Every structure is written in C-alpha cells, then in structure tokens.
Amino acid sequence: MRIVQKYGGSSMGSVERIGLVADRVARTHALGHAVVVVVSAMQGETDRLIKLAGRLSDRPRDREIDVLLATGEQVSIALLALALRERGVEARSFLGHQVRILTDSIHGSARIQTIDAAPVHDCLDKGEVVVVAGFQGVDQDGNITTLGRGGSDLSAVAMAAAIKADACEIYSDVDGIYTTDPNICAKARRIDRISCEEMLELASLGAKVLQARSVEFALKHKVAICCKSTFDESGGSWVLPDAGTLEGMDMAGLEGAVVTGVACDRNTARFSVSDIPNRPGAAAALFQPLADDAINVDVIIQTAPRDGRCELSFTVPKGSALRTRQLLDRLRPQMGFGAVTIDDNVAKVSIVGAGMRSQPGVALRAFQAMGQAGIDIQLISTSEIKISMVVDDRFTEAAVRVLHDAFALDRAGGGR
Ligand code: ASP
Ligand code: MG
C-alpha cells in the first residue's frame, strides 16, 4: 500500500519522541508499504518563531515571516530522516519547494495549487521513505509560503491526493475523533468512522485533531483520512469523503447513525435587532457592512413581519461583537430600526449527523431533551445535517451532556 503518515508538533516534541516516530515509520516501511511522512515543527517552535518576529515587526503576512516559520519544519524533516537512517531505513527529506508544493502567493494562508509528485515517486520506487516538510510551499516566483496554522494536515492530505495514496494517517496525541469533547462529557466515545461533511460541521470538536481546510480538501479530492495516536497502536477514527470510498469497509456506522456528534462553540455573541422596517433589501442592507468588514455571521433568525416590522437575531464570534455593535449603531439612523440588544454570555450547541437527512423527528427529540433538562433555547437553526441551538452559556455543558444522552452517543451503534 501507499501510505502518507503525518506527525504533528506534539509527536515531534523532543528527540525521544522523534525516535518513537521513527520506530513507527520504520515498522510501516518494514511491512512493505511505500511511506511518505509529512511532519510539523517541533512542539512550540512555530509559536516561538512568531513571537520572535513579533518583537521586530508587526506584519503577520509578510514574505519574511514565511521564510522564518518554514525553518521549524526544516529542522523536523532533517532530524526524522537522520533517525530513520540510524534505524537502517533509507530516508530522504524534502522541503516544500523541492517537491514543488506550488501555492498562490498569499503569505501566511497560501492555498495549494499543484504538487509535482515525480521526485517523491522516484524515491518510493527505490524503496526509500520520503520525509516532507508540512505547512510550507512555494509560489510561482519561488517565494516560500506557509499554509496557515495547523497547515501540515493540509500538506499531508494534498500529498496523499497527489500520489494517490491508499490512506492518509494523521498522528497526534489523541487517538481519534470523539462524539463530543471528553472534557465536558465523560461518556464521550471515540467514533470509528465519520464522513468529511460531518467532520466539517463538527469542526469545533476536531479542530485540535484535524485542521478544517484539510477536511475540505479531503472531501474534494476523495482522500480517506485516519486519525490515530502516535503513542498507542489501538484506536483511530476514519474520516471518509463518502460512503463508498473504502471498498470492503463496513459502512454500517456511517449509514445507521442519525446523530454522530455534539459540538459546542462558546465563542459566540448574540445580537437582536428589533423593529426593522420590513421592505425588500432590508436584510441585505443590515448585513452588508458586516460582510464588508469580514465579520462571520452565523445563526440568523428573522421573525415574521408584524405591522410592517420584524426582528432579526444572529450570532457573531465574541471578538467581533464590539465592531458589530459600532457598525449597527452607524446604520440605525439610515435604516430606522429599533433597539439592538447583545448577549455575549451565550454558546451554540449543535448536533450533527448525516442520517438526519432521511430521519424525521430528530429536532423534536433534541428539543424535548433540552426542555426536560430545563434549558431554554434562544435561537435555533438547522441545516441538512446539523441542528444548532443558542443557549445561555451557563447551560453549555449541561446541554452537551443532555444531547449526548438523548441520542445514546455513549453506546457503540448509538446515535439512532
Ligand atoms: N507548525 C505549524 C503550526 O504550528 C503547522 C502545523 O503544526 O501543522 O501551525
Ligand atoms: Mg495540528
């Protein structure tokens, strides 16, 4: 098989840990697999470099910042390749530009355009392990670029797509994706298989395990990802682009569950704008300045108009609340709406599951569970595979547990 393995900062945290990573790579190689390893900088290194730069400059998107940050991964690939050679495994390290991970020129959050897999195939054909620096690429003009924080996941998934790997294994210090945050709900259970689209909706659960952009890429390019622990052979969660991807794999888990996980986002502020004159274009006029300011508006609810006026509620990230308030204050005289109220002690709790599409009554079950627990729901919004409820933040943890219980997510085969 052709396998891409990605090891993150914590797996590369010390010389001893790099030794453990090398052992694992060597074992995979000894089984006869062709292995491409993508690595992150050693734990804390990227933060250290960012701080260093911050003492001399406050331009986060500068070309030179990318030159600086890319050094973290350069250290990692060299150390890992050395450790592999020490174990008798022929290994060769590559920087982003050497495998030509071609990106656009947006420093700090570049997008991958193409990968020239030829040098990788040459090494694999010779039986060598290929070690590639994550998080970095090169633009048309030869400038070093970086892909945004956590970007090594994206490098790994893109590499897997480029060499048509059978699997892309993402190693970290947790052994997979959980039905909810185990710190909030002790009954959280590791999920065996989850679809990319569910994973994207559950981003707040998976953010630490998997960078959202890498999941988008996997969905688009049909890459199967397996999240595993570096330090534990068992476990693991598959994140799959669609139900038919892995031949011979029992997809019952994917097909059978109605709800796959419960996510919560405490970085939420709720706005309510009252007495908005209800005329065509009113909502557009209200949200235009927020969009111009790149404010990420989420749950949006409008009440049915009464006496020509309606009320609109929506959420934004807490950090955007002040700016949103200023923009609305500026807009009020010209649009003629009433009071604006803000509550930043709220959280958004969501249940996610692809099975909701074909199963009625899921929302009702969630609402009943919340009601029985005495949790009032301030706003509700639904998509095909997600139901989000905005609640007072003091209920967040209770809401997560209640919903986890209501769909029996603690049980294998739960979520029905
Ligand atoms: N080293 C980079 C970071 O800390 C990339 C990564 O770890 O994926 O964000
Ligand atoms: Mg990471």
Task: Explain what you see.
The chain is an alpha/beta fold and 416 residues long. It has 2 domains: 2-173, Carbamate kinase; 251-416, VC0802-like (2-Layer Sandwich). The chain is 34% helix and 26% strand. It contains 13 helices and 18 strands. It has helices at 15-30, 45-54, 63-86, 118-125, 152-162, 196-201, 203-206, 212-221, 252-256, 282-292, 321-335, 362-372, 396-406, and strands at 2-7, 34-39, 91-94, 101-103, 112-115, 129-133, 136-138, 144-146, 167-172, 193-195, 225-229, 237-240, 261-277, 300-302, 309-316, 340-352, 377-383, 386-392. Helix 1 (15-30) packs across helix 3 (63-86) and helix 10 (282-292) runs antiparallel to helix 11. The longest helix has 24 residues, at 63-86. The structure holds aspartic acid (ASP) and magnesium ion. Magnesium ion (MG) binds at residues 8, 150, 153.
